[in-house]
Amino acid sequence: MKVVVIGNGMVGYKFCEKILSRASIELVVFGEEIRPAYDRVHLSEFFAGKTAEDLTMAGIEWYHENNIRLHLADPIVSIDRTAKKIHSHKGITESYDYLVLATGSAAFVPPIPGVDKQGVFIYRTIEDLEMMSTHARHAKTGAVIGGGLLGLEAAKAMLDLGISNTQVIEFAPRLMPRQIDDAGSAILRNKLELLGLKIHTSKNTSAILGDEVITGMQFSDGTSINVDMLVISAGIKPRDELAKLCGLETGSRGGIVVNEKLATNDPCIFAIGECALYNGMIYGLVAPGYEMADVVARNLAFLNSPAKITDDISKEVTAIEVQNPPSGGRGAFLGYDMSTKLKLIGIDVASFGDPFLEGENIRTVVFEDTMKGIYKRINIAADGTALLGGILVGDADQYNMLLQTCKNKMPLPANPEDLILGSRGGESAAGGGGQGLPDDAMICSCESVSKGDICNAVSAQGCETVDAIKKCTKAGTGCGGCIPMVKDLVLYTMKAQGKYVRNVLCEHFHYSRQEMFDLVKLHGLKSYDEVLDRLGTGDGCELCKPPVASILASLWGEMILKKGNDTAQDSNDRFLANIQKGGTYSVVPRIPGGEITPDKLIVIGQVAKQYNLYTKITGGQRIDLFGAHLNDLPEIWRQLIEAGFESGHAYGKSLRTVKSCVGSTWCRFGLHDSVSFAIRIEERYRGLRSPHKLKGGVSGCIRECAEAQSKDFGIIATEKGWNLHVCGNGGSKPQHALLLAADLDDETCIRYIDRFLMFYIKTADTLTRTATWLNKMEGGIDYLRNVVVNDSLGMSAEWEAEMQTLVNCYKCEWKEAIENPEIKKRFTHFVNAPEIKDPSIKFEPMREQKKVADWK
Amino acid sequence: MLTLTDQNTITWFPACHTEDVPANGGVCVKYGETQIALFHFARRGEWYATQNECPHRMQMALSRGMIGTQQDEPKVACPFHKKTFSLATGECLTGDECSIKTYPVKVEEGKIFIGIV
Ligand code: SRM
Ligand SMILES: Cc1cc2nc3c(=O)[nH]c(=O)nc-3n(C[C@H](O)[C@H](O)[C@H](O)COP(=O)(O)OP(=O)(O)OC[C@H]3O[C@@H](n4cnc5c(N)ncnc54)[C@H](O)[C@@H]3O)c2cc1C
Ligand code: SF4
Ligand code: FES
């Protein structure tokens, strides 16, 4: 059988992949673009530094290896249906048994006078983006026509291109009119405006101004704006021109009409992806396109199977039983759910099922927080039996769960509002993981992978990591939105198999960090080698050394470089400084609470000058001196220590800073002296080794200038004392701290932090911040509160005593390092030429200071 | 393993003394303009030498890396991005970074010699 595919976009490519895995046929592909199919969904990442190559679905070699004849940059210009032949622009004629049209769509450009001017772009191909970035270099103001899914993505791209003055022009009265309702749209609008986008709704563009190059836009309400660059994203137009030309049936508003087998009115020609019109609908998303590709691949493979004797092909196609697919899975396309979650601008927006349902039989639950910019709506059958659709703006964490609940008609909790409000009162959330889902629940819709497929990959094929699942099932390789769910399912399946999911350190230790902590303590082990001899096998590695060294430090409070533990430390701890690009180190003296005297500031300046160090105020209210040679570190620290500084532990998994605001000593709103309390706390926990770094904050009132609620522990003054919040986190997945206890006096507050920190240090996995630790804790903050405040484990007295021991044995590591000749001698680059610094380090001048030369 | 003919063409360069190298860690040796990382794998009673430059981002840093084993293969992890390299063969054990050069080492009366071929 010979199949010709027209169009090498995402869906055309997927068709090739799917049919290859099912049948051996002769496959010829024609693509109009100059490169093989690439990931259009993640097109915008081109501006974030991804290259065309990074976005490629499969390189040209892949087509060769699989004997696919691929013709790029050669569009098909006509189809001769009677002769079953196609003709390409370059003059190639190719016959076919079956033809698959995967010609996708083009951007719809409304007929506004002036759309042909320079500086007006569409947003569809890599070439479009290349042209945009060239033009953007000289543009200061930009606009996007269209406030839908793609328009907003294009607007964000303009911001990324450095055009901070960007406006969005939407014809409808609200943004994303097809996905979200008025209220959701209003919240989204607010959020976008905070990003610096200017939004106009109910605005109709009447002309594009300028001579050859765009200079402005004229609207039908008489107003106008100046712009240097415009992207039109007003919808898509299916590429059905070829189909029309050869007399295939097309829709009045475009699209090639197909039946549930994706066959056109010519049974030897199929259309899939964004060019196909099924049931009056164009599916402008990739997942339904993939599903179409799969259906056609299955059916063609069936026709190609040796068991089939083909005399009248046209009969065969229609003969395939819709309900009884020949090769398993679905033999027919029966429509597709248009649920979407945007990968937009760091603002969560999602809609699923029917987001707009209203009426007597529908109960709508809405949650709205205009302060935080969150809007959630769910539509439930009035009898409470099923979730029918909904909208999430500002927080779409529950999207996957809701989508699954909706698609699989899963039973709802007694209080359906729990679905969007999450579990309150500490009980586990309705449908918190993937456990409750039926086996055929679609987990990865990009690649059509069901829960059953994933669980099977775990139990039958031994895939026990997300990466293994990706390789084996392809789940999570598309948009990636399902990865948290996949992870969950892997763990759940392993547990269900009775596999104790052991979070072991590495091949040398068959224990989790928590078990190691207890065992090291029980056996009184004090050095890495002792621990390895007693509890491990082999010779250790870079995965187990740092956590063991950290456990030793948390348990015994001994200088981290003694007892041969120096070489078990991560490089940063080993040299008591952070290694930087190029191989120099940074020097961060502790500045508790951010308070520093003028004299000390002068010393920092002098030291920096003497050693030619780049200085910068850090995000943690202190000063970082960068670019120190290893050889210079001891002398730099000698001078700093002499002036009263001590190590800031910027290199360790240990307490960093306790950020303060100025508080009641100066601030007219301050309730208590937050600086003094921050200093007291920072000095209490300085040097404390923990599974990950620790940060604190103390604010003098609820205005929260110290950002305490983004810290591992954050303290906020109240009229009556301090509120203690815990488990906040910045980083890539920010999370606010939760209130642990309210209106505490100084001493109680410190006791609670002691307990909290000891509990964390003893039980968290390696490199797990307190936020993630809490997220994984069964019972969540309520459980934690019970342990810390109500002493439910009966450990508080012991933990407080242990913490006090650690506090008492604190010594500045740098002071010890420079006083101990054995340790000090390690701070040289060449062992056989201690006076020579690393000659390979190069600096370049920058803004009156220096920077390290870029690495290759 | 060295063969006899190799032995003949090797120049043994005296690098330092055993006590100059931390147990289970590395130091950097200057040989003319060349930087060589020298490791004392005390747990196994072995000595290794490799180029000091990590081929990933051309950083002079391998001597400051942690050493250990992977399925009994001795290795060093670069402090920058934790790419690991076999100390015995120089082969990169994490992905496709190029391999590193290794040098023979011998210890005589507390002195360490690195073999330059
Ligand atoms: C210097 C500084 C940036 C600056 O110029 O301001 C900085 C620099 C580094 N940060 Fe940071 N972070 C700095 C404040 C922050 C903050 C803001 C804050 O503390 O208020 C955050 C977010 C708050 C938080 O941690 O929750 C922050 C979140 C991170 C993270 C992500 C942590 C997470 O939980 O996801 C990393 C990566 C890690 O630790 O694994 C990181 C890692 C790093 C490292 C250590 C990367 C590395 O391994 O080389 C950088 C090395 C600095 C050096 O050599 O001295 N840095 N880093 C800031 C030093 C603060 C200080 O005085 O100690
Ligand atoms: C910026 C952007 C963001 C997007 N984000 C998302 C998202 O988040 N989620 C989502 O689900 N979808 C998203 N989409 C939509 C998704 O990219 C499309 O649904 C998908 O690419 C459709 O695939 P296709 O193969 O049908 O069409 P296309 O990818 O358009 O491929 C069709 C190919 O056929 C070629 N062609 C046309 N005519 C001929 C001819 N006569 N001869 C030869 N070749 C021809 C075209 O040049 C093109 O290369 C986004 C699209 C864009 C542009
Ligand atoms: S944000 Fe990234 S680049 Fe900036 S200092 Fe922190 S780790 Fe380094
Ligand atoms: S520089 Fe060595 S791993 Fe990147």
How would you describe the shape of chain A?
globular
The helix-and-strand class of chain B reads: mainly beta
Distance between the termini of chain B: 14 Å
Radius of gyration of chain B: 13 Å
Largest interface (CB within 8 Å) is between: A-B, 38 and 40 residues
Give an account of the 3D structure.
The complex is a heterodimer of chains A (856) and B (117). With 856 residues, chain A is α/β, with parallel strands linked by helices. Chain A is 31% helix and 20% strand. Chain A has 27 helices and 39 strands. In chain A, strands 3-2-1-7-19 form a 5-stranded parallel beta sheet. In chain A, strands 9-16-10-11-12 form a 5-stranded parallel beta sheet. In chain A, strands 22-23-26-25-24 form a 5-stranded antiparallel beta sheet, with helices on both faces. Chain B has 117 residues and is mostly beta strands. A 4-stranded antiparallel beta sheet of chain B has the order 2-3-4-10, with no helix packed on it. In chain B, strands 1-12-11 form a 3-stranded antiparallel beta sheet, with no helix packed on it. Chain B is globular. The model of chain B has no long low-confidence stretch (mean pLDDT 89). Chains A and B meet through helix 18 of A and strand 2, strand 3, strand 6, strand 7 and strand 8 of B. The site of siroheme has 20 residues of chain A, from strand 33.
What can be said about this structure in brief?
The complex is a heterodimer of chains A (856) and B (117). Chain A has 856 residues and is α/β, with parallel strands linked by helices.
Q: Main traits of this protein?
A:
heterodimer, A: about 850 residues, alpha/beta, 5-stranded parallel sheet, globular, B: about 120 residues, mainly beta, Rieske Iron-sulfur Protein, 4-stranded antiparallel sheet, 3-stranded antiparallel sheet, 1 helix, 12 strands, about 5% helix, binds siroheme, binds flavin-adenine dinucleotide, binds iron/sulfur cluster, binds FE2/S2 (inorganic) cluster
